Structure formats: C-alpha cells, structure tokens
Amino acid sequence: MDQDLYKEGYTQNREISWLHFDDRCLNEAKDKDVPLLERLKFVAIYTSNLSEFFMVRVGSLLDMEKASYVHIDRKSGMSTREQLNAIYPHAKRINKKRDAVYQDIQKKMAKAGVIDTKIEECSKAQLKFLKKHFKNQIAPLLTPQIVDIHHPFPNLQSNAVYIVTNLKYKKKNIFAFVQVPSVLSSIIEIPSETGFAFVHTEDIIQYYVNDIFKDAEILEVMKIRVARSAYIDVEDEAFDEIMDYRKKMLKVLKERKKMNVTMLVCSKKPSQHFRKYLLSHLQITNQALFVSAIPLNMKYAFDLEKLIPEEMKEIMTYPPYEPKLSPALDYKQNIFEQIQEKDVLLRYPYESMEPFLQLLKESAEDPDVVSIRITIYRLASHARLVNYLCQAAENGKEVDVLIELKARFDEQNNIDYSERLEDAGCNVIYGFESYKVHSKICLITKVTKGQASHVTLIATGNFNENTARQYTDLACLTANPRIVKDAISFFKNMSIGKLDGVYRNLLVAPVSLKPKILELIDRETAKKEKGFIFAKINALTDDDIIMKLKDASCAGVKITLLVRGISCLLPGVEGKTENIEVRQIVGRYLEHSRIYIFGTGRNRKMYISSADFMTRNTEKRVEIAMPVLDAGIRKELEEYVRIYLSDNVKTRILGPNGRYHKIKDVETPVIAQNYLMEHTQESTQTIKSPRIRTVTSAFDTKYHGGKK
Asked: What percent of the chain shows pLDDT beyond 70?
C-alpha cells in the first residue's frame, strides 16, 4: 500500500469529507423550496449525523491518540492529532451556521402558526397549565442526583439530555443532575389562541428546577448532552472468557455506556467555575465543548408532524407519498411461481416492499416450501418479516437466520430479535467475530413432487420495513439458476464459517468482490477513451479502488460516480482525475442503493450490491454484488441511472478543492426523486395488510444517522 497517496494530490481526508456531507444535509434546511417542517427535520438530521460522527469517528481517533498509536492518514498526510484539531473547529463553524438556520426556520414557522414558545414568554394561563403538567406528569418520573462525597459524578448516557445546576445546599456549593426521561414526549402543546403553541419538555424541567431542589439556592443552571465513543472491539481480550456471542455483545453494550466522552454540548456558555467542573469530571478539554442555541433533543422535529393540525401539516411537509405495488406481479397469484417465470426488480421507496413480505407470508404457509434462509443486518422495530419467519419455523420449515449482532446502534434490537427467532424454532447464527455480515440475501426453497425449486432475493438495503419507505434501495427477485446456485453455496458456507467460498456469478466479499471490481476497472482502462465506469455508492474510501480509478482516468476512461456521502477521491485534478465526475444527491429520501456499471453495449457488466467502495466493506465485511442478467431489468436499471444523472436541482458536483457546487444555468429543472415518484407505475391490485402479532424492541431505526 502506498503510504504517500496524499502526495499525489487527488485525495482528501475522510473525516473532513464526512463533515462536508453533514453540511450538505444542513443546506437542505436552508432551501426555500423545501417545506418548513421538512427543513426543520434536516436540522435534526444534521445534528444526529454530527453526534454519530463524534461517537464513531472521533471516538476512534481519540482512542488511537490515548493508546499512543502513531497513525498518519494515507489520504491527507494528517496525524491523529492534526485530524482532531481540524475536526473540532470545523464542526463548531458548521454548528454556528446550523443555529442561524434554525432561528430562521423558527421565525417562519411562528408566522405560519406553529409557535415554539419560551416559557419566560408564557401567559399566566399557560404557566398555570405547565405547572400542573410538570407536577402531575413530569415530576414523578424525575430522579435528581446531587454530587458530593456520598454521591459520585453520574455516568452520563450518550445523547441523553440532562439539566445540570450549581446550587448552594446546606451552606455547601454543589452540583446536581436531572436526566430528562426518554419516555416523556419531547414537546408539550400549550393553550393558545394564535396557533399551535408548544414548549420543550427539557425547558419545562429546567424552568422548574427550583421545585426539584426546594431547599437549595440555584446559582447556575443549563442543559447538557454528551456523546461518548461508540467504538469497542468485540475481540478485545476483556471479552475473551465470554463464550456465548450474544452475552458477549450485551457486555459490549454495557461497556459502551462508560466510554470516553468525545463531545459536550451545553445550552449556553457556562461560567468558568461550571466549565472547569464539567471538563474535569468528563476528562475532556475545552476543544470538546460546544455551545448550542437549539434544543438538545431535536427529535421533536419528527414528533411535531404528528401533533400539528392537518391543515398546517399539508403546508409544512412534503406531499404524502405511498410506495406503489410493482405492476410486474399479479397479487392474486402465487408470487413464488411468478418469479420462476421472470425476474422482478423492486425500487424502494418508489415501489413497496410488500411483494417480498407477501412472498414470505405465502412461503410460511405453503406446505411445499421446505426452507427459508436469510441474512439480517437491521430490522424495523415492529418487523412483520420476523413474524413470518417465526410462523414458518412454527409450521415445521427449516428457517436459517444469519443475524448480525454487531450492527452499530442496532445491537440491542438484533439481540432481542435473535431471542424471539430462536424461541420460535429458527436456527440462528451470528456470523463472524472479525467480519460483519452486511449482505442482504434471502433464499426460499420449495419441493413439489420431488422437484426442488428456488427463489432468491438480493438487495442493496436492509430487510427493514420502515427504511424501505425512506431510503432508495433496489431488490431483485430471481429464480435464475446461476444466481440460485451461488446463493445455495453462500448459505452453506456461512453455516460452517467458510469465508473463502468460490462463486461463479455472485461477487462475495471479503474474497472475490474487490478483486473483481479492480479487474473490471482494469478492463475499462485497457479500452482507454472507449471505456466507461459508473458507480452509485454511499462512500468511496478504499485506497486500491481509488488508485485504479485514477489510472483509468489517466487512460481516458469516462467515469461518473454518484457518491452520497464520503468521497476521499477528488475529481478534476489535472493529470490525475480530470475524467472523473463525482456527484452527490441529498433530498427527500436517503440515497442508499449501490449500482456498479462497467462498459457499454452488449458487454456491459451491471451489478447491484450491498457494498460501498470502502475498505471496511471490501475487506472486513461479508457483502454481495449480484450481476444483473435479465435483459428487461438491465434496461430498467439503465433508465433508473439515467434519471438520477438527469437531476440538476438536488445534485451537487464535487470540485478538486473538496467543495460541492450546484449545477448552474438550469433550463428545465429535474429532481430525480420527484420524477420517480411521479412516473412509477402502480399495480391495479391491492394487498390486504394482515393483522399480525408484533414484537416489541428496544431500538427504532433512525432515518439518516449514517445507517448504511
């Protein structure tokens, strides 16, 4: 590996690139063509993304620094400390922009009748209402804690909101903490004759802090929130003695609650005494302290939509869109049998996930279906998919579920589901300690009159019924023997822990996916100006792929990359990457599908995949890329890509300086996501949603947050 890649001048630091993506999300909050409440949601998305960034990436950098691990970033030449010194001020600058954007949105929402009210501005009637609400609904749930010789400094939970006060109690100057309970609604509507008025629960608790500490004098009070490092190596020797992998992951989650603090957010600038106290006890420097002028719980932006009157919602939100049933299927007929005749491509969220769920439901009830095998990375909090798998197992079918317990921030959710699946009789396995299983594949087998037949689904995104309505993803249902044969081999290999299996058509990381991608880039490079490469991915960080793309560019190959987030490759660098264009789309839906295209005409190679061009995907995960073999679906996918490349409103073009810019001089505006919503055909049939038992879980999948 070239240690001096950064000296070539066509790469950038991944952390700074991530922050540029966060800034791009924030720019959607400034867009006047985006409805007001949706703009507020983008402020919340930006804030959530930034928090995750500090938990994952900054946490990793701080761990390296504390371990005195000497690391120079290959793409920027920056040391660990230099990266941290660049990250913190960069993030603080964007936060100032966020605060200004937020204030502007709040003013406009107030004019439209949705009024975010400061308690100090409440009328006597409103204060009376709040006092009663605090006394009856909030106070009984609070657990205040003072800090003194008998009461240690609390272990502050990551992303929880706390009211912190410096008070004088029994002639002593002490600090006290009150956690805002997560079970409470983030906002409370208050009586108003001028519109929909509300206050934040965190502000109510802060306002009535005197009622919590009745015998004390409040000297200073504010709200705070911390982010803790979320990076824990499950292979650390501290977990060696735990042989049950599920118990090991529970131990990891417990340890995460005590990890290093990477960011402290305060609702106002603290006094010197207050600042010194917090920094000392959290073992951080002033660099990690952020002052925020927005609510610390921005999830209220999503709660607000459920509370405001319908007429306001129509004005302030996107027009409602219901994913459409694919017209490729007859929903009065057996779906398994239809897939035996033709491949079907589902395009979320423009089309619904219902056909796949219907296939699972039919398979669970079909006496001829003998087995269902599936990989799971993230699931909805109430997953019908799990119910169908359990039903299948209870009906005597062999159900093999490879569930990834290391899916960051969904670990507890997956642990809960693994227990539920096992209880129903499913065979549950957890993958590999050193590799995350990130592939999205399902194999259903039926035996009729002694003859076996199969249907495989391979997707770019998770089997998550919630995010299938929020993320753009692709899922291909096929009975093609070439794909089925590899799918059978895949599940056999996974069941015996064999990572180095051989597949004739599927590209499977960590063994064959990356070498094949590099080979295909080389193939196009050999064609020089006649070569063509397109990739739609979420991130580009893999050094080997980056260098191969540079070589292809130098040979004259035209390369278009649609990269939603991080791109460590800088396009347009003279003599290096001038034939590469990097585009980015941020819009109503989170762009999540992965598509690779190499070449033109009949020899064109097309894949849909679960893998980004990141080293963690190509070398440290079990990923699948499926060749698109069906002629009809190839045409459909080409049209899908053409529509995305026609977008000239939400698209930004990455420049050689690492900055994104809009497409100028647009004559006919095209927003790809809007076009696909408007032009996606719908089946004339309907699927009656079944009444099924639901499974409660501890986690709900977040919308943007970097869930990839």
From this structure: 92
Residues 339, 343, 349: CA angle, nearest 5 degrees: 100
Backbone φ and ψ for 38, nearest 5 degrees, come out as -65, -35
Q: State the virtual CA torsion across 107, 112, 115, 121 in degrees, nearest 10.
A: 70
Q: Tokens 């609650």, residue?
A: 257
H or E element at residue 174: strand 172-179
CATH of 5-316, one of 3.30.1840.10, 3.10.450.50, 3.20.20.70, 3.40.50.150: 3.30.1840.10
Tokens of 591: 């762009």
As beta bridge partners, residue 569 has 11
Cβ proximity of 116 and 45 under 8 Å: no
Residues 681 and 388: beta-carbon distance below 8 Å: no
Averaged pLDDT, 392-396: 96
Give Rg (Cα) of the chain: 27
Q: How far apart are CA 612 and CA 540, in angstroms?
A: 7
Instruction: Choose among 696, 692, 693: nearest CA to 381.
Output: 696
Q: 335-495: which CATH topology? A: Endonuclease; Chain A (3.30.870)
What letter does residue 185 receive in the DSSP assignment?
-
Q: Which of 454, 456, 455, 457 is nearest to 475 (CA)?
A: 457
- Number of other residues whose CB lies within 10 A of the CB of residue 688: 6
Least confident of 181-190, 192-201, 402-411, 536-545: 402-411
CA 51, 55, 61: angle at the middle one, nearest 5? 125
Look-up: residue for tokens 């005590």?
258
Report how far residue 404's alpha carbon sits from residue 611's, in angstroms, rounded to the nearest whole number: 15
What's the rounded Cα separation, in Å, for the pair 625 and 519? 15
Sorted by sequence, the CB contacts under 8 Å of residue 649 that are 6+ apart come out as 663, 666, 669, 670, 671
- Contact (Cβ atoms closer than 8 angstroms) between residue 43 and residue 294: yes
Q: In 139-223, which residue ranges form alpha helices assigned H by DSSP? A: 201-207, 209-212
pLDDT classification of 689: cutoffs 50, 70, 90: low
Q: Give the mean model confidence (pLDDT) for residues 522-529.
A: 98
Instruction: Tell me the C-alpha distance between 279 and 524, whole Å.
Output: 54
Please state, in angstroms and rounded to a whole number, the distance separating the CA atoms of residues 492 and 508.
Answer: 14
Per-domain residue ranges of the chain: 5-316, 335-495, 507-679
Q: Is the peptide bond before 627 cis (omega within 30 degrees of 0)?
A: no
Terminal Cα distance for the chain, rounded: 26
pLDDT of 251: 60
Alpha-carbon span 227 to 316, nearest angstrom: 31
Look up the CATH number of domain 507-679.
3.30.870.10
Q: What are the pLDDT digits (tens) for 16-42?
A: 999 999 999 999 999 999 999 999 999
Structure tokens that stand for 95 in this block:
């936060």
pLDDT digits (tens, 9 = 90+) for 38-90: 999 999 999 999 999 999 899 888 888 877 777 789 999 999 999 999 999 99
Residues annotated as catalytic (active site), given as ranges: 438
pLDDT at 226: 97
- Structure tokens that stand for 561 in this block: 């990359």
Residue type, 378: R
Residue with the larger pLDDT of the pair 392 and 8 = 392
**Chain centroid offset of residue 460 CA:** 14
For β-strands 558-563 and 532-537, DSSP reports them as parallel
Please tell me the predicted confidence (pLDDT) of residue 67: 74
The residues with which 535 forms a beta bridge, in sequence order, are: 561, 596
State how far the alpha carbon of 347 is from the alpha carbons of 336, 483, 673, in Å. 19, 20, 12
List, for residues 100-157, the tens digit of each pLDDT value: 999 999 999 999 999 999 999 999 999 999 999 999 999 999 999 999 888 899 999 9
CA distances from 39 to 19, 30, 98, 198 (A): 19, 7, 11, 18
Q: Quote the strand ranges of 404-531, DSSP E.
A: 427-429, 436-437, 441-448, 451-459, 471-478, 507-509
Same fold, 335-495 and 507-679: yes
